Amino acid sequence: MISNVAQPVRKLKENDAFGLLLRPRVVRNYWRYQKELTARPLVMSAHPPFIEIEMTNRCNLACIQCLRSVGLKPYKLGDMEFENYRKILAQFPFAMSICLNGFGEPMMYKRFFEVVAYTKKERPWAKIVIYSNGMLIDEDKAHRLMDCGLTELNISLDAARPETYDRVRRGGKLDVVHDNIRRLVRFKKETGARFPLIGVNFVMVNDNEGELVECVEQAKDLGVDFINCISWAAYDWGFKNRRSPQSYLNELRVARDRMSTLGVRCKSFPKLNIGWTAPDKPFSCDFFWGENFRVTHDGSITLGCCTPFKETFSYGNILEQPFESIWNNASYQQARSLARVNKSPNAVCSSCDHFCKSFFEENNDNHKTYVPLDALVPGHRLKL
What we know:
Elements: H1 6-14, H2 24-39, E1 50-53, E2 62-63, H3 82-90, E3 97-99, H4 112-122, E4 127-132, H5 139-145, E5 152-156, H6 162-168, E6 169-170, H7 174-191, E7 197-204, H8 212-222, E8 226-232, H9 245-262, E9 266-268, E10 293-295, E11 300-302, E12 314-317, H10 323-327, H11 330-340, H12 347-357, H13 373-376
Helix pairs in contact: 5-7, 8-9
């Protein structure tokens, strides 16, 4: 068991964040934020320390657990202008973790390496992270990733078998992703680079039932630093679960035991219960106080969950108004006041609350029709 002192030290070392010790204002903001996250005031004095800034909402795949695949379309596809990124980052001087993701594939952003280098220069203490499908990480990009300033690179797999991957992550190929991961791991060893740390992710859906343990074994074989996240696809916008609670829980238990045997670390492992589906569970969400704070590629501040469209819900645009005027505006305060008494502040949140509680009640709906891949990803193999 890691001691109370050793754990923060490990996090600082792992994220190359010892510079935080020289930034007392950033640390004070973090502790103030944690207190306010617990107290849930209507007006926040602290900034969110963990932010997501969407470089692009374009993607080269059409995964079946993604809302695009069931016909829900995002706002106009596009990329963030580099100058706008500079303006947005400047408004978050206390950021400790900066995720360059949103509703798209970050490696499709043409100025990706420029953005990472700029972020590292401006926020040298911050963890800089992306989540990628890994399909576009060719040899040149793999080399550049070794010294660009990225702290953590997570690659989503969601399957252990090629035929399953073809169904789940439409438009990609598992052997290509595996080869790209092996190349990344090899380059890290050859160059002696500490970063980026390389992780893989696995979202449990209907089609990949029974493959989590295989994915754990493959992660060991690939030589990644960790499994970053294992999660359930409990969304509100169209994914229909066909699995039983026991199916999920049994698979998780076996995977946990296998990780322990192999010495594979998982940074985020689901709780082994389904309490979140209880009918009498009250609505509760920390997004209104800045957990998973997200800015879209056009500057809109949306809900920090898997419903990222500004058309669905937006608190304002950070390129049109300063962050300080949005952070505690009337919309935020109204949402916080309702969430404090366990009421859903908007239709999106009501839908999520209802869906989670009915997650295991709709498991007979096995006729989901997905939008054809051609309609979502023209040409299938989008390149920068």
